[in-house]
# Entry
Amino acid sequence: MAMFVRFKTPKEVQDMAYDLVEKARDNGKISKGANEATKQVERGQAKLVVMAEDITPEEILAHMPILCEEKNIPYAYVPSKQELGDAAGLGVSTAAVAIVNPGKDAAGIDSIVKKIDALKKQG
# Structure
């Protein structure tokens, strides 16, 4: 497991995360890439941060879980930077995506946040 990964994300939650990124891309607002996601977290505007576990070097995202926790912003992990990039509509891989406005699927954010909170308590 990468050094920045704080809890194991089950497949169901990973699939929800990819789905939320796709929906927010289409009718909400997302910020793509580690730098843009970091800016949205620092501003307190991100509703959810999705990070890829397979990035190198891992230091790219080492700060992200700590920053998210300081700002009370939920975060999740997905296994593939390529799939995350595809979900974000990039066509190239990306280390992280911040959902700034979930669009029509605000309930989806609430649902995944409850599951993530439960995972953190277990871990």
About this structure: DSSP finds five helices and four strands in the chain. The mean pLDDT is 93. Residues 11-122 form a domain with the 60s Ribosomal Protein L30; Chain: A; fold (CATH 3.30.1330.30). The radius of gyration is 13 Å.
